[in-house]
Amino acid sequence: xxxxxxxxxxxxxxxxxxxxxxxxxxxxxxxxxxxxxxxxxxxxxxxxxxxxxxxxxxxxxxxxxxxxxxxxxxxxxxxxxxxxxxxxxxxxxxxxxxxxxxxxxxxxxxxxxxxxxxxxxxxxxxxxxxxxxxxxxxxxxxxxxxxxxxxxxxxxxxxxxxxxxxxxxxxxxxxxxxxxxxxxxxxxxxxxxxxxxxxxxxxxxxxxxxxxxxxxxxxxxxxxxxxxxxxxxxxxxxxxxxxxxxxxxxxxxxxxxxxxxxxxxxxxxxxxxxxxxxxxxxxxxxxxxxxxxxxxxxxxxxxxxxxxxxxxxxxxxxxxxxxxxxxxxxxxxxxxxxxx
Length: 340
What we know:
Layout: H1 21-67, H2 72-90, E1 101-104, H3 105-137, H4 143-148, H5 151-173, E2 181-184, H6 193-220, H7 230-236, H8 238-266, H9 273-300, H10 302-339
């Protein structure tokens, strides 16, 4: 694969050549939109996602320490949770928007590597989770079924696969001018066009095909007589299926924008401020999905939901007990004041 000279590329907002006042107003409006979205994400989605993620970790670790065993599905969801927490921490790079994080090409490439590692990891762990649920509904004795009974082995395979893809992407970012400072995004603008093509293919195309295949088998194939009804099966695992739909929609938007950016690179064009605005919106939507997925696991996955309900019930009991203790004290004080 031949090297590309990407020194010509830059963000439209960094190459201002306005002809009319309308263009200036449009640019200011787009900058305001990006800034407001960033503040909304940092203020609401980040704390919610991190709190949900930490609660999930505590619940799963507590469950393991209590019973010395963890279900295959819970182990994979724990893997998925950790990947999304890392994604949320990496999303702090948007805090400078509408400007961009200043970093050297090397630092930007390292951030991009960890971002892609978490991105690919969470995507393929979700496929593995869907496969586990599919095999629960349609039991079989194939080698694939036996492999899913060893979640640590499956998780190790996904980690290795995600690492190889991330390493490939790191190479496609390019190694030229590694010491020079640049405007950094987690999917770097100065990456070669092949970077976006690989990311779309292995980060969206293949996982989405496998995801649709799992859903097609789930809805189209007749279940065994002893299996629960389809609606009952979905109600048993609402978190996984809700996350699957959310991820597909959010990743579709983001990856389409990635492809549009590739077409601009191939045409030797930097695009317009409007294109830049939509790309920034897509990136923030991607990070919002990571936060939302953790909230879905916390409130829709039965073990974590039961633990949350238990905590709420304990808090109510303590409040009720404290209230009953306060009543006799108040009554006693009233009687004493009357006797005086």
